[in-house]
Predict the structure.
Amino acid sequence: MYKSKGIQAYRKDSIKSDLASADPHRIIQLLMQGALEKLALGKGCIERSDWEGKSASLTRAVEIINALRDALDRDVNPELVDNLESLYEYMTVRITEASATKDISIIDQVMGLLLQIKGAWDQISPADKQVAYDERNEARVEAV
């Protein structure tokens, strides 16, 4: 019990440290990883019949996915944003359904979708990230 709390405290401090120095790309990666972890935890809770844990984990996963949806920048690529927004909405509906029905196959499906998005996100090169940051900054300057 004590050992687990120490690990959790370390993880929280590590994540806070990572977020404090993270660029926007890294923050999205951390959010996706957090959602995947909460989904896995929720799945485990269902398997153990830990209904309180299931509820907390899947609720947090939905909150993280909503944060991902809120972070979408419609000005960059409206069509892509529309598609991602729809996909994130679909995920939240499916997670809610999985929570109500206690169906872990639904959680597996959502995790598969999120892993595909995260895989593509993780493959963005540093040069492409810099181009995107530069374009975003130019658009902000022009808007002022």
Q: What stands out?
A: Helices lie at 2-20, 24-47, 51-70, 78-101, 104-122, 126-143. DSSP finds six helices and no strands in the chain. The chain has a mean pLDDT of 85. Residues 24-47 form the longest helix (24 residues).
